[in-house]
Amino acid sequence: MQNAAIKRVNVSSLKTGSAQQKKSKKTDRRSNFGKRFLSSCMEFQSPTSRPTSSDVVLNHHPPFPIIHQFLLPPPLLPTPSTVLLPVPFNPSLFFTMDNQRSISLLQFMVDEGLVPSAEEEDKRKSVIRKLKQVVSSWIKKVACLHQLPDHQIAVTSATVLTYGSYGLGVHSSGSDIDALCVAPFFASIAEDFFIVLHDMLKRRPEVSYIHCVKSAKVPLMRFKFEGVSIDLPYARLNVLYVPENVDILNPFFMRNIDDTSWKSLSGVRANKYILHLVLNIEKFQCILRCLKLWAKRRGVYGTSLGYLGGVHMTVLAAYVFLRHPDATLNALIMHFFQTFAFWPWPTPVMLQEGMLTVIDGIETRSYMPIFLPSSRYEHCHTNITKSTFFRIRSEFLQGHEMTKDILKPDFLWDNVFEPFPYTERYSRFLKICLSSPNHYALVEWVGWVKSRFRGLLLHLEATQGFCDPNPTEYVDSEKTEPNVVFYWGLKSNKNNFLDIDSVKGEFMKIIKNGYEGSPGRMEMSILLASQLPN
């Protein structure tokens, strides 16, 4: 979900690309997470504790072929280029290199500041605790408004469940919190949630920038609580009392709930199910943090732009992790790239056997179908198009090419996580500038326009053949109004002409359809790479 506050990056960083997108955070101290995992990593990777018979083969099969029979085996893949090991094979050298890569990746994570500090963790826990207190007071008030009997008012309760990156424990510094308000059957979303709870939150001094997003696929409230951005959707269960840590995987609580509640609960259920499946949660969190950073650096992260989102990365990472639970951190990264570089899309990715019983009609036409693990009927909604599918697949292939040789002497993780060089790949860019009179209005305007970007992307593919929407949000410092700028890469072709007025007109029709607020401004123009602002 989107952050309440838009990340601002100056347009001058676009041309300098790689260097300026890297974080400059360097620290000499490892976090508690880093210390614990480094210790377990070194202990696990001892050659005496690792099997050699199933981890390394000296033929043309992929390395580490560990398959759990109770899970679906991966589809047959085209013969990939594999790790070529010198003969005679030296197991000690192999394990040493694998161990060194894993430890250096862990240190890379610490240096990049991927693990929040203890102070940040305490603040987030405090925010969730206070939000739960507000929700508890709210449901009592709603019960009184509905004139429930006194004994029912006394026992009724509601709670807040976290999910997404925070619920999985893979959030980074400054990331938002996805939290779900779960209440009893009598509390309506239209009045009790979007009016009564909204007003209670708005009156609190710790809450700012609160607004309702009723038109989203999953309606929610978005606000900041003590500076922490929170997305809060709503679900109601057919019960009078919702336990604080309700087991949402229990079928009892899913009986006869409405469609909105089902959609809102799907993210929480998927999180809990995946954490239930993986045996080593800390190692899974580590690999998922790495893969999310990689996707962001390579420009293939962001569902509104047609790329992978957090839930997609979680399922893909879990698929690999469950099939190689004893692999090292380095080996898991290798497996990930090798698996999905040669995956026979559109074969669905599923964590559970027997899931493919009912397939959504829309999802059968998806380029990269990925199914949620908590239900055989649900898939992860994607906006992936022909262009973004090509980009994602290309990045999988490049990741495999860069990591496949375990004995490569000059290997550096910095190269794997190098930001995508847009200005080296594209000679033309579509500039999309969104602006509003104030920051509050800009947040709503940008969020709505981004939710409609798929329509623009499909139109550009039809006229230009290919478009690479850079997910990074920039700021045009020359404009006085609050603004957000996107630069989308366009491939050169025989006919470079693009009727920008026509494109803008068609897209404005899509944007205005259903928008309830006051629309901001949108400007479009075509720039050559040499014309990008410095």
UniProtKB/TrEMBL annotation:
Domain Poly(A) polymerase nucleotidyltransferase intervals: 98-278
Biased composition (Polar residues): 10-21
Alphabetical keyword list: ATP-binding, Magnesium, Membrane, Metal-binding, mRNA processing, Nucleotide-binding, Nucleotidyltransferase, Nucleus, Transferase, Transmembrane, Transmembrane helix
Ranges that cross the membrane: 299-321
Keyword ATP-binding included in the entry's annotation: yes
UniProt keyword Transferase, yes or no: yes
Pfam family, one: PAP_NTPase
Annotated Poly(A) polymerase central domain residues: 284-418
A single Gene Ontology CC term: nucleus
Localisation: Nucleus
GO biological process, one term: mRNA processing
Region (Disordered): 1-31
Molecular function in Gene Ontology: ATP binding; metal ion binding; poly(A) RNA polymerase activity; RNA binding
Cofactor(s) needed for function: Mg(2+); Mn(2+)
PANTHER family for the chain: NUCLEAR POLY(A) POLYMERASE 3, POLY A POLYMERASE
Protein family: Belongs to the poly(A) polymerase family.
Protein name, as recorded: polynucleotide adenylyltransferase
Species: Vigna angularis var. angularis
